[in-house]
Amino acid sequence: xxxxxxxxxxxxxxxxGLQASSSEQQSALSLAGAxxxxxxxxxxxxxxxxxxxxxxxxxEAACQIGVSGLGxxxxxxxxxxxxxxxxxxxxxxxLGSSGLTITQWGENTD
Length: 110
Hints:
This protein is α+β, with helices and mostly antiparallel strands. The protein has one helix spanning 2-47, and strands at 53-58, 61-68, 73-81, 86-96, 99-107. A five-stranded antiparallel β-sheet has the order 1-2-3-4-5, covered by helices on one side. Strand 1 and strand 2 (61-68) form a beta hairpin.
């Protein structure tokens, strides 16, 4: 009985570790998805400096992009919403005749 209890305890501990690992993996994928949302906004800003944002699907997730600012300075706020995680990235961008320069990039945790 003791051996069975130890074996079950070890199995449950392994299962708990797998669940945590899966959660961490989904969180990392969600962050990568939010970064892809910002990348999409960057491409659209290069094509059209008046781009103000929008939303689109990314597989089973959704991406919401907002672009604010005037002149050569813009702020991109991208939110990627999936089944279990919401990740947000904010990027500062400077538009110029030689192209686009990223001035700030970071995860928004609020």
